[in-house]
Amino acid sequence: MLATTRRLAKPLLTGARSFAAKGKGGAAAAEEVVDLTKVVPTNILKDGAHPELKDKSEYPEWLFTLLDPKPTLGELDRTGFDNLEMEEQHRYLVLLNRRSVKATNAEKAKK
Asked: How many whole angstroms separate alpha carbon 81 and alpha carbon 64?
C-alpha cells in the first residue's frame, strides 16, 4: 500500500524537457570579413579557401544564359508541339504535367 501512494505522490519524469545550463559570458566569435569583388564566400570547409572570381571572358558562354527567362506553357502551346525543339518539347511536357497535377490536387482539396 505504501508503494502505490509513493508513486502517486511524485510524478514520473520520463520525457521531461530539460534545458542546457547557461553559458558564461565570453567573447563573441569574430566573423570573417570577405571582399565580394574578389572571391565568392562559398567555402564550407574549415581549412579551405573561397574560390576566386575570374574575368567574364574566362567563363563559358552558356553560363550567362542560365538565368534567361524560359517560355511559358501558353507560349509553347501557341508554337505547337511539332514545331518545338527537343528541349522545348521536354519543358512543354513538364509544364503540362505540372498543370494537371495542380488541377487534380485542387479537385481533391474541394472534396
From this structure: 27
Rounded CA separation 34/41 (Å): 7
Asked whether 96 and 84 are in contact (CB, 8 A), the reply is no
Task: Report the chain's terminal Cα–Cα distance, integer Å.
Answer: 56
Three-class DSSP category at 52: strand
pTM for this entry: 0.53
Return the C-alpha cell found at 7.
508513486
pLDDT in tens, 6-38: 555 555 556 666 677 776 766 666 676 767 777
Task: Using DSSP, state whether 39 is helix, strand or coil.
Answer: strand
What are the structural domain ranges in the chain? Answer: 69-111
